[in-house]
Amino acid sequence: MRFRPLVASLALFATFTVASHQSVQAAETEWRKAVSILGEPKYGDDFKHYDYVNPDAPKGGTLNQTAYGSFDSLNPFVVQGTPAAGLPATVGGGLLYDTLLSQSLDQPATNYGLIAEAIAYPDDYSSVKFRLNPAARWHDGQPITVDDVIWSFDTLKAQSPSYNKYYHDVTKAEKTGDHEVTFTFSSGGNRELPSIMGDFPILPKHWWEGNDASGKKRDISKPTTEIPLGSSAYKIESASPGNTIVWSRVADYWGKDLPVNVGRNNFDRIRYEYFRDQDAAWEGFKKGGFEDYRSEASIGKWMRGYDFPAFRRGEVVKAVFPLRSFGRMQGFLLNTRRDKFKDPRVREALTWAYDFESMSKNLFFGQYKRINSYFSGSELASSGLPMGKELEILETVKGDVPDEVFTKEFKLPVYATPQSQRDNLRQAVTLLRDAGYKQKNGKLVNAKTGEPFTIEFLANDPSADRTFGPYLGSLRKLGIDAELRVVDAAQYTARLNDFDFDMITPNVLAQSLSPGNEQRDFWGSGAADTPGSRNYMGIKNPAVDKLIDRIIFAKDRDELVAATHALDRVLLWNYYAVPQWYDDRIKIAYWNKFGMPAKQPDYAGIDPFSWWIDTAKEQALKARAE
To answer: How many angstroms separate the CA atoms of 550 and 125, rounded?
Structure first.
């Protein structure tokens, strides 16, 4: 199950718990208002609002945010173009579109009603039905209908790689009542599929099939700068491509009194100002008025950068929250579509050349932990040797995975001493030699063709040299011609979508605590050649595909965890990425203009949409600025 990272996108962070005991075809179906794959929902039928919000939070004011690069489209459901901030980046509705269900922020894998007021599905997980809330409306006042749901499903699955992979096993959507829609699955046993249908954004069929102001018929398969019709708590007030996009709160929003929205969506406006890169955005934050709060990803800035006047005066505040909501992989990802990365010995050699310990000491203040799993920081991370159910699952792919999966604990090289540095680089040289490379005049070349070994690292932030540089230096010691290429955000996005790179470090590949269908988009063979998918490494591995299916069709939590451990282990031993580091904290800094609830959600760690503008604090900031 995927979730929407909260701080980075403001499109907040999975599912409806239900265990319906009757078939959808049964005369009497048990409808539920909430469900969770991992247990009982925290809130019952008397749910009024989340217990961490202030239900009487005042509305008003503007939340200023920044975005990097540019945008040229207000249609996020096509590969072409770069969508504006606030629109959904992958699956979900972003700020504009409501989904069938709303993901909980204070309990994992739990959903409550939004467009759908109730959900039901049979014991065999072969289908799911939703009963729509009759009050649900588009911003133009028209009702959200079953026809909108069916049209949205058919359209997005047909044209969007992300939706096609995520909902691969959903074969049909049909109207089964005035306010009822049923989704049929290709088979039973997919425990999370009924729930993740709740993540589906519903689009206005009548608007997209209509004409624009010039009389031209709209085309959802193409980028557009026309402001689209939505249904959520916010709508686009104005958009200047490449510069700004302003979202305004919908005063008569149909769902404002639903329990999932009470005490939230308190800002009258959310304004995104675009900056060239992260350094420029940082300067904007320090100045004030451009970015009211930021999630601080740079440990260097966190430790040393907050010495500007506004921080010393207490106008800017730092805060730390625990991060419990997901596991993650972050690393240098290798594009195995390139011939030079097809040999796993080459990929392993590149891991032996990475000196995390020196970077941790010299750049990271010892604050980061080493990534040692594709699910680091969660119970889903593998460790030790496989045993029990995990071993049983791995036996089904024995012969198709590295032998070490069964015999050795996966451990990354450690650069603890000068001797270990020499030993690790020597091991990298041995692996490269075994893979058919040799040194010639100080350069690493293919022993047969004489072609030099080159690697271009692709990035979209000039400050990337700080973290890329030390690794490039190690690779050059091996004779590899390694270079960093920094491009603008639009070119970077286009090259990622087309898989036109050697190695990249994208945003953290965040993993839900209940993984499932999204694993196909991350690692599945079917996504490897699909432009715009998240299978950046180009993995085409039948054993990986089998293990993904074991996760998707796991019968219970124990089997899900065991299958995820097995997948993790196989991914690690294939060396598709050079693992980097992670932080198990959410570090934020904000201008002291907010009112906040006394607590934040335990699961997500932070919910900025539960904050509000404290007018006294904001006026005090303005007075000091004058």
So the answer is: 15
- The one-character DSSP state at 530 is S
Q: How many CA atoms lie within 13 A of 258 on its CB side?
A: 24
DSSP annotation of 40 reads S
| Closest to 228 (Cα-Cα) out of 65, 64, 261, 219 | 219
Decide: residue 238, CB within 10 A, 0-12 exposed, 13-18 middle, 19+ buried: exposed
Angle at CA 523, nearest 5°, toward 520 and 526? 55
**Cα separation, 27 vs 377, whole angstroms:** 45
- The label of the residue with tokens 């699909």 reads 530
* Residue 43 phi, psi dihedral angles, 5° rounding: -110, 140
Angstrom CA distances, 603 to 105, 235, 326, stand at 6, 28, 9
DSSP string, 239-305: EETTTEEEEEE-TT-TTTTSTTTTT----SEEEEEEESSHHHHHHHHHHSSS-SEEE---HHIIIII
pLDDT in tens, 299-351: 999 999 999 999 999 999 999 998 887 788 999 999 999 999 999 999 999 99
Continuous segment of H or E residues that includes residue 345 = helix 344-352
Q: Over the stretch 117-172, which tens digit does the pLDDT of each residue have?
A: 999 999 999 999 999 999 999 999 999 999 999 999 999 999 988 898 889 999 99
Question: Per-residue pLDDT for 182 more than 60?
Answer: yes
Tokens, residue 456: 């271009």
Q: Which of 597, 603, 617, 592 is nearest to 263 (CA)?
A: 597
Contact 484, 504 (CB under 8 A): no
**What are the two backbone dihedrals, phi and then psi, of residue 495, each rounded to the nearest 5 degrees?**
-70, -35
Alpha helices in 209-264 (DSSP H): none
C-alpha–C-alpha distance, residues 137 and 497, integer Å: 34
Please enumerate, as own/partner, the contacts of 466-473 that have beta carbons within 8 Å and a separation of 24 or more: 466/300, 466/363, 467/359, 467/363, 467/505, 468/505, 470/355, 470/358, 470/359, 470/362, 470/363, 471/332, 471/353, 471/354, 471/355, 471/578
Amino acid letter, residue 209:
E
> For residues 94, 96, 97 and 98, what is the CA-based torsion angle, rounded to 10 degrees?
80
The DSSP secondary-structure symbol of 304 reads I
Please report how many Cα atoms fall inside a 13 Å half-sphere around the Cα of residue 190, on the Cβ side. Answer: 26
Residue 239: closest CA among 252, 248, 231: 248
Beta bridge partners of 556: none
Look at residues 156, 58, 172 and name the one whose alpha carbon lies nearest to residue 616: 58
In angstroms, the CA 218 to CA 227 distance is 12
Q: What one-letter code names the amino acid at 192?
A: E
Q: What is the pLDDT of residue 21?
A: 34
Collect all residues with Cβ–Cβ distance below 8 Å to 105 and sequence separation of at least 6. 6, 12, 13, 50, 601, 603, 604, 607
What is the rounded distance in angstroms from the CA atom of residue 472 to the CA atom of residue 481? 9
